[in-house]
Amino acid sequence: MISKLKTGKTVVGLKQTKKAAAQSQAEMVWIAEDADPALTAAVERVCQEHQVPVEWVPTMKELGSACGISVGASAAALLRF
Q1: How many other C-beta atoms are found inside a 10 Å radius of the C-beta of residue 53?
Q2: CA dihedral 20, 23, 25, 29 (to 10 degrees)
Q3: Mean pLDDT, range 46-53, rounded to an integer
Q4: Is 34 helix (H, G, I), strand (E, B) or coil?
Q5: How far apart are CA 24 and CA 75, in angstroms?
Q6: Alpha-carbon span 18 to 7, nearest angstrom
């Protein structure tokens, strides 16, 4: 499923992912397991409220790589449109 991040329109980062989920623009969200839980909890909560599926990725490095960036990412979302 993480391969969808390379082919679809995405947003990367906690703020943008949270915003996309809150505005019902996110089809799916990925969160890195090694990211700070105090920061990712808000994204997870918004996803639950808006019924956006969440998939966990083992590391920020892996998520960043899947998004096509050279740094780690805490969260990313595949957009609906």
Answers
A1: 12
A2: 40
A3: 97
A4: coil
A5: 16
A6: 21
